[in-house]
Amino acid sequence: MTPEEEAMQAEIMAEMKAISEKSSNSRFDQYEKKVVSNSVQGAAGTENSDPNGDGGAAFLQGNPEEPSMNQYWYSQPTISALTSECSRLIAEGGADFKVAFLSTPSIYFALSEAERKQCFVFDYDKKWESDRGFVFYDFNDQETLPKELHNTFDLVVIDPPFITREVWEKYTASSKLLLCVDPTENSPKGMVIGTTVAENKDFMGELLGCKPQAFRPSIPNLVYQYNSYANFEGAKFLGKPNPEID
Question: What are the alphabetically sorted keywords of the record (predicted)?
Fold first, then answer.
């Protein structure tokens, strides 16, 4: 990479970091809790690969984005692809396979009702707190992760509200608390799926052992492009390019 290209990349990263960190110190101060319908069951009939067959359409229709919380949703086809990957892993893992969705409610709610019984969604937004699988989660406070859920999950799915390494380090700490432990090595084991910018490739590998996948998610109202990452081989739906983007 030439010095000019390195300078340009550094400038792009600085701009993205500034966007990501805007209002981060008081990101929830202006947030007023909204009581909305918790319905997530969509009408059948649309052919998609996710279990509900609506590609998360019901979730998108019932849950407007909250920019003050850096809350920007994946597109409907992207939700469908990510949900399909999770559904595949749940089916292969069986009834004891558990999934933790960290700041990824759109994927959780696009799963079938039966699949959600094996899952929990960890989020700061309490408008979903009436759901059986909801767990309040503040990534700045690991104490918000119930101890009874420590080391009980086979897969963690992550989409932080910010792209900085500092935030990803906190989500990594959460993941290590939630993932099952290998008794022979006394270290976390399990699968991780995450989405963030391509420039985070190096520390995604360092922190979580994740590699970029062919699938690049679409987030229509976000100003920069994300990649998908996974720490396991053989991802089916993440292993193919997203026709929305590529």
Answer: Cytoplasm, Methyltransferase, Transferase
Tokens of 195: 């989405």
- Residue pair 158/191 in contact (Cβ under 8 Å)? The answer is no
* Closest to 53 (Cα-Cα) out of 41, 66, 35: 41
Q: Classify domain 55-230 at the CATH superfamily level.
A: Vaccinia Virus protein VP39 (3.40.50.150)
Rounded CA separation 158/100 (Å): 9
How far, in Å, are 76, 124, 198, 226, 235 from residue 229 at the CA level? Answer: 19, 23, 9, 10, 10
* Interatomic CA distance for residues 124 and 122, integer angstroms: 7
> For residues 146 and 142, what is the distance between their CA atoms, to the nearest angstrom?
9
Q: Alpha-carbon torsion 121, 124, 128, 130, what sign?
A: positive
pLDDT at residue 11 is higher than 70: no
DSSP 194: E
| Spans of all domains in the chain | 55-230
pLDDT band of 31, cuts 50, 70, 90: very low
pLDDT digits over 145-187, tens only?
999 999 999 999 999 999 999 999 999 999 999 999 987 777 7
Q: Phi/psi zone of residue 234: left (φ > 0), alpha (ψ -120 to 50 degrees), beta? A: left
Beta strands 99-102 and 119-123, pairing class: parallel
pTM of the prediction? 0.80
Characterize the bridge pairing of strands 211-212 and 226-230. Answer: antiparallel
Give the three-state DSSP class for 155: strand
